[in-house]
Amino acid sequence: MCPLDVVKTRLQVAHASAGGAGGYGGIRSSLRTIIAEEGTRGLYRGLGPTLVALLPNWAVYFTVYERLKDLLRHAEAGDATPLPHGAHMAAAAGAGGATVLTTNPLWVAKTRLQVQSAAGLRERLASSAPWHATPYKGTRDCLRRIAKEEGLRGLYSGLGPSLVGIFHVMIQLPVYEASKAMLAERAHVPSDELGTSALVAASSASKMVASVVTYPHEVVRARMHVEGCGPFRGVGRICRAVYGEAGMAGFYRGCGANLVRTTPAAAITFTSFELITRAIHHWVARLDEERLRGEERTQSSQRS
What we know:
CATH class: Mainly Alpha
Number of domains: 1
Distance between the termini: 65 Å
């Protein structure tokens, strides 16, 4: 799905008031422009940092999320009590914050690698991104140069909007849990026994709702990544610029490509996580049962 990620990023960075700078006016026109100017290779710009970030991104997120849920569950009323939606939101927020702080430099590198080869955006990049004069050679070179030339300010550009983006998971996870509960009630089964199709439906719906509600922060974040203006500086200026270009519509440039790209990915990720976690729990429970039976047999033989 990387081609759509490239399209999304370039749409976010292009001037909306110009109908899409340099041919970046929509998904189709952007794909045609990229292929015409850069070939199919252009569709996979920024793949390196994306792949590098995937493992720590989800590892940190799900680890912290499950740990916080356990802590909140114990704080509420023990393991048997279902967590309220507020607790899911708190766990999601904590997990999102930990993930953002861990992976932000990689997303800055990804954004810059995705846009630096766009001929139609060169005029804009030249005016707002001094680094564009000497293109990056790859992920390692990009991170090294940002650290050397811009320091932590550059590596953590866009951190502010990314933290605002925590609302994404604060919406997504509770909607996901509520969707599972609703589907489980309709099927008259516990939520941890839902089938694959139900898990896919719940994860897809929750992703789409959260993406549409919180998408504007991604536009602001992408522009901050490009400009390297630091974690928080420039947020107001960029918001005014985006609104001045196309009103609220400017904050949703690339949203269609984002939904097409992220919804299937979220469905696969969440469904896989649920099924794998379920299988592990069943395996551990079976081991515990076998251990208990073994202990009972040992005690029985000792008594006889």
